Amino acid sequence: MSEETWHEARLIPTSGISGTEEQERRATSAVLAVMSVVKEFGKALVGHLGAPAGQIETYIEVPFMIGDKRCYPDGLIRATRGTKSWTALVEVKTGKNELQPEQLESYLDIARDEGFDALITISNEIPGIAGQHPTKVDKRKLKKVALHHWSWSYVLSTAVMQKEHRGVSDPEQAWILGELIRYLEHPRSGAMELEDMGANWVAVRDAVIAGTLRASDKSAPEVAARFDALLQYVSLRLGQKLGTDVLPILTRKEQADPVTPRTSGPHANGQRSRARWINPYSERSWPDQHSCRS
After folding, report:
1. CB-based contact 111:89 (threshold 8 Å)
2. SS3 221
3. Residue of 293, 207, 290 whose CA lies nearest to 254
4. H helices of 68-200, where?
5. How many CB atoms within 10 Å of residue 45?
6. What distance in Å separates the CA atoms of residue 250 and residue 9, rounded to the nearest whole number?
7. Cβ-count burial of 203 within 10 angstroms (0-12 exposed, 13-18 middle, 19+ buried)?
8. Backbone dihedral region for residue 131 (phi beyond 0: left; psi -120 to 50: alpha; all else: beta)
9. Contact (Cβ atoms closer than 8 angstroms) between residue 30 and residue 180
10. pTM of the entire predicted model
C-alpha cells in the first residue's frame, strides 16, 4: 500500500463529528484545552478581559443548579495569580447556530450567584463593532457580571497571530497551537468564515444603486450591520496576514451609538463614513479628529 494514502495522526481529529452537539463539544474542549496549555495563547484571549496573567485552568460542561433545574454551560475558565482569581463561564455555538438570549441570561444568573466575573460566548456571529455583543440581553443582568463575545474568526486569528508573529516560547506548545489552527480551519469544525451578506443584500444594494432605498426600509439596518460585520471579518483576516491588529475607523458617534447611524442620517442613503486600515500601535497611523468623518 502506498504511503500517500496514509492519514497523519492528529491531536484534534476532525473525523467522527456526527452532529452539532458533538461539533460544539469538540470545539469547546479543543480551544479551552489549548488555552490552558499554551500560556501565550490563553493570555492573548483573556488578558484584556481582566484576567490576571497567571495559571489558566479550563473545564467543560460544569453542572450548576438554577432552582430545581440542572444546567451545563459549555465551559469554564479560571485564571489565578497569587491570591487573585478570575472566573468566566463559556457558551459555544458552531455552524449557523446563534446564541439565545434566554440561555445567556440563565448563565449570567449562575455567574452572579457563584461570584464569577464574566460570561464569554463563542459563535460565528460577528458584531459590527469590536466589543459589542451580537445578542441582546437584559442589561440589569450585567451589573455584576461582564458579557464578552469571541467570533470563531477572532479565535482563529488570535491563534495564528500568536504562533506566526508574536511567538510561542515552547516548541511543543507551538505545535499544539498549530494543531488547533489546523482543526479550526477544517470545514467540519463548525468555525465558519463569513460566507454571504444575508438574504436582503441584493435587494438593498439594488435599491441604493437605483436611489429608491427609504429610511423606513426594515432590511437596511440588517444589511448595514452585515456590512459592518464584513469590515470586522476582513480586519481580522488582514491582521492575521500582517501580524498586527487591524481596526476599521469609526466616528465617535458610531463608537458611542453604533445602532442609530444605520437607520438615520447619511447611512440610510447608502453613504458611509470613510474607513482606513491602521496599525493602532503606530502614532503615525493615528487619524486626526476629522479624518474619519464623511
Report:
1. yes
2. helix
3. 293
4. 101-114, 152-161, 171-185
5. 21
6. 45
7. middle
8. left
9. yes
10. 0.75
